[in-house]
Design brief:
two-stranded antiparallel ribbon, 8 helices
């Protein structure tokens, strides 16, 4: 019954430790954009491990003696074991891998959940599903000509990651060009001032669909005398949607890394549970070894008392002539063996 109660207590404390690990912030979901638009870009501070000894054992001391029960042992090991304190962070690390996978990047693996390094690359990690490091190079149209607005080149290919990408660009250019003739421009030196701005939005979806929207605006002024538009304002808008029909089609393919990260969380939970159970098993074995040693000492003491009583009885019987001296010597030898 005592062993059954100890096993139940061990299971209950393992459950409590899992609940304690789950009370840490959930890193599998990013910070919400509203109401604070800066919160997603702020650093998350992870609570540190408590390395101080708890007062459980100190409270159990009575008159300089420690009455160590199985329940007290289990509670003390769970509260003060450094391996358990370190292992409780692994599920949180697995949650960050799931957050990476939801963005479209590859998980990197944690502790017991090993992932081959060929799946990811670089400091931030790439992805086997797309260009995780680049992100923005999606399908759509691009201006293949110069200032006169030549035909646009159409490129259709997978674009972006599951996380949307919004990029802004702005440039200014001032050019002074001396000319050999004034017949075309009307002036010997042409000064051109150009300003350009662009905004691009790119996102990929687990279905294999890529969505790209871009808008550009260019303003160019020149000191030439024989041009129709000065300044010349050239706007441009491109929107494209591409859907993979063969390679990369369907959510099963594109959510493969997310599934890997979800399984990684389950592995780390069981690994944490195994870490707690291993520490408790070692402590329980040491506890029962101590109990067995105490019982062995008690049995040896009782054997010594019995041997001393037998020797005394044999000596009395020898004195009254009812027992041989050899029996007394044998009893004294047994007393010496019991004392040793």
């Amino acid at each position: 019954m005592k062993r059954l109660a100890a096993a139940l207590a061990c299971g209950a404390l393992c459950g409590q430790m899992l609940v304690f690990a789950e009370t840490l912030p959930d890193y599998s979901h990013g910070a919400k954009l509203f109401p604070s638009i800066w919160k997603p870009y702020q650093t998350w501070h992870v609570p540190g491990a408590n390395l101080a000894n708890t007062g459980t054992l100190q409270a159990a001391l009575q008159n300089g003696k420690l009455k160590l029960s199985m329940d007290l042992l289990i509670q003390t090991v769970v509260e003060n074991n450094l391996a358990v304190a370190a292992a409780r962070f692994y599920p949180s690390m697995a949650q960050t891998d799931l957050l990476r996978a939801h963005s479209g990047a590859s998980p990197r693996g944690v502790d017991a959940a090993a992932i081959p390094s060929s799946v990811f690359a670089g400091a931030e990690g790439g992805s086997i599903l797309g260009s995780a490091a680049g992100g923005g190079g999606g399908g759509g149209g691009s201006n293949a000509g110069g200032i006169n607005g030549a035909a646009g080149a159409v490129n259709v290919r997978p674009a972006g990651l599951f996380d949307p990408s919004l990029s802004l660009a702005f440039s200014l250019d001032h050019t002074v060009s001396p000319l050999n003739t004034v017949r075309v421009a009307g002036v010997p030196v042409v000064t051109t001032a150009t300003g350009a701005a662009s905004i691009n939005y790119v996102q990929d979806f687990p279905t294999g669909t890529s969505f790209t929207v871009s808008y550009t605006l260019q303003r160019q002024g020149s000191t030439q005398q024989r041009i129709l538009f000065d300044p010349a304002i050239i706007p441009g808008f491109t929107a494209s949607v591409s859907q993979q029909m063969l390679n990369g089609f369907g959510t099963s393919v594109n959510r493969a890394l997310i599934k890997v990260a979800e399984n990684e969380q389950k592995i780390e939970r069981e690994s944490f549970r195994a870490q707690v159970v291993s520490a408790l098993v070692s402590a329980k074995n040491a506890y029962w070894d101590l109990v067995a040693a105490n019982q062995s000492v008690r049995a040896a003491e009782e054997a010594l008392v019995a041997a001393q009583q037998l020797a005394e009885n044999n000596r009395k019987q020898f004195e009254i002539g009812t027992m041989a001296q050899l029996d007394v010597v044998t009893a004294d030898a047994q007393v010496a063996a019991s004392q040793r």
